[in-house]
Amino acid sequence: MTTSLPAQCEQLLRSGCSAMQIDVSEPQIQLLLAYTEQLHKWNKAYNLTAIRQPVDMLKLHILDSLSVVKELTKLEPKRIIDVGTGPGLPGMILAIMWPHLSIDLLDTNGKKTRFLTHCKHLFKLDNVTVLNKRVEQHQPEQAYDVVVSRAFASISDMLGGCDQLVAPSGVFAPMKGQYPDAELAEMPNSYQLVSSHLLTVPDVDAERHLLIIAKQA
Questions:
Q1: Is the per-residue pLDDT at 160 higher than 80?
Q2: What gap in Å lies between CA 115 and CA 84, rounded to an integer?
Q3: pLDDT the model gives residue 1
Q4: Quick one: which of 131, 126, 128 has its CA closest to 92?
Q5: Taking the CB of residue 72, how many other CB atoms lie within 10 A of it?
Q6: Which of 53, 110, 163, 173 is the most exposed place for a label (fewest CB within 10 A)?
Q7: Superfamily of domain 7-215
Q8: What's the N-to-C CA distance of the chain in angstroms?
């Protein structure tokens, strides 16, 4: 699969995965690059992200999304939902990395969900379901092991809006920049912070954290 991306993108992706110690196959490398190309192409017309250049998309979106792979793998999930997924970050990236898992991508923005549906069919990602609705409207028949979000809402708003999505043994996994002391202080007592992981994203000079939050037993 060839793309029109700058050669630097592939180099950044390969070196970034190596630095984060992520096992990635050659077909997955090519899918991640193809997704980046489609994001760049669609962004010109549909304004899916404020990041305009493919190299920056690779660093700030693709590698950033990949940075949670190792920690989420430890949870051994089977069903994941990415709420407020936007153009599929991190959900579409996780779907490429984990073709054996069921991954739902939810967003209210029709342009973004049309892009996601396009990518699902283009890349033959049968493990992906695209949902164009508000999170409060989503009442799944089967709850999720992991509810992930990236820059979606405050922690309290996420927990309140997504409470019906998580299985009894499942967790919320919000991706944050700096450690959100204030947001955690406002978290309802019915939830507990299980763990916090400082993430290092290659070529990105900014703090990143992944939080794992569960309902109190």
A1: yes
A2: 14
A3: 62
A4: 128
A5: 23
A6: 110
A7: Vaccinia Virus protein VP39 (3.40.50.150)
A8: 48
